[in-house]
Each structure stands twice: as C-alpha cells, then as structure tokens.
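Hey,
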Amino acid sequence: MSTDVVVGMVTTPDRAMAEAIVDRLVGERLIACGNILASVGSIYRWQGEVERADEVLIILKTTEALAAHVVARVRELHSYEVPEVLFFPVTKGNDAYVQWVRESVRSAQDIEG
C-alpha cells in the first residue's frame, strides 16, 4: 500500500518557535498535526565550523501535494537562515489515520487556484 501522505521533520531553536510554526501550519490546514519533541542535541557543520545546539524537533504529517507549500511557509516563519525541512514518504500505515491526514489538510488546488 503506497500513500500520498508524508512525514516531515523541522528543527527549531526553542519550543516557542516550534509551537508557533505548528499552530500556523495546522491553522492554515497545511499539516494535519505536528508533534513537538523537546531537547534534541544537534551537531552540524555551518559556515565551515562544527556547531552544537540544543534544538526542538517537530514531526509533522501532510500530503505529498502540500509538501512544497509547507517548506515555503516554514522558511517564512523560521528564524534560521537555512531551516531543516525534510519529508519522507509513508508507504504503509493505519488506513484510518492516513485518511484523517488527507481530510485534515486542504488540497493543493485550493492553494494554487
């Protein structure tokens, strides 16, 4: 069973920003939900230096058709110059949950048209 649902990841510098982003994306019906996980440790290379940060991770659910719109909206709302916004396909899952995700977001045609 392949689905049109995707799971995304976004990191933020703090819980307030994570909540603000999730509130907006759910309110705008770009995502069905967002889970906020506190205090993930990140080690990464930025501008030639190895950096360390405590961040907050958002796991979000939407449709493939809305993924590009979510990326654009997160870039507008986020404080990072280059925010992490990654999506992964959902190949199998609870059919009722997958349907709930579809029903909870608006269609891409509503945005583009």
